[in-house]
Amino acid sequence: MAVRIGKSVKIYPGVKLGNGCVIYDFVVLGFPPRNKMVGAYSDTSLQIGENAIIRPFTTIYAGNRIGDNFQSGQGTSIREDNIIGNNVSVGSNTTLEFGNRIGSGTRIHSLCFLELVNVGENVFIGPGTVFLDDPHPMNCPRYRECLGGAKVKKLVKIGGGCIILPGITIGEAALIGAGTCVTKDVPKGVVVVGHPGKFVKKIEELKCYPGFFKRPYLWKPYI
Fold first, then answer.
1. Active site residues
2. Are 95 and 138 in a shared domain?
């Protein structure tokens, strides 16, 4: 399938688009990063897989590798040195700063911020969630050797408006309630809510209030 490109699209040299991509109006692809050789590829290379949908006013820098079936919302910004798997969506006005690793099947909603975050497969990140990566801003000379962003294991669900502090690990299949500030590691398969976040129950103890299921998350990809 041919690539479809809208009006007023800027594509820099070194951009590779897979078959079937749809690039809407006013998109910028392959924008040069400030530093040389900081990305998953060189500063002149951007790879996007097949069947991507890049919506208006999205900017994706050079130095990124993005898998098949990617979708961006309007006004998405993706800086250099991000590696993104297949079937990932990044919502409107979300910013992926440098150094993120995003697993396949993950959905990042609108107005989120991630930097140096490692996200597993099939993770849900609600709108307005912020991942912090620098415990002592700004200009610490050992910044790149410090805690960095969070590690989010596969199948995690994070509600809207959460704050995740630097260096946190969120265990597989955990659930972070909306508005939670996560200040310490979260074990596998638990529910954490509050400010600061506190363990309240295990995932198996959740209830489906309408009674449709024995409990939530008894469906793919969680089983």
1. 136
2. no
Output the six-digit token pair for 144: 């790149």
Q: Which residues of 194-217 are buried (b: 16+ CB within 10 A; e: fewer)?
A: eeebeeeeebeeeeeeeeeeeeeb
Interval 84-106: pLDDT, tens = 999 999 999 999 999 999 999 99
Examine the domain organization and report whether 99 and 140 are in the same domain: no
Range of 152's domain? 123-223
Domain count, the chain: 2
Distances in Å between the Cα of 63 and the Cα atoms of 24, 83, 156 are 21, 9, 27
Record the pTM: 0.91
Burial class (CB in 10 A: 0-12, 13-18, 19+), 189: middle
2 CB burial (10 A radius; 0-12, 13-18, 19+) = exposed
Whether residue 127 is found in the same domain as residue 99? no
CATH of the domain at 63: 2.160.10.10
Q: Contact 117/98 with Cβ under 8 angstroms? A: no
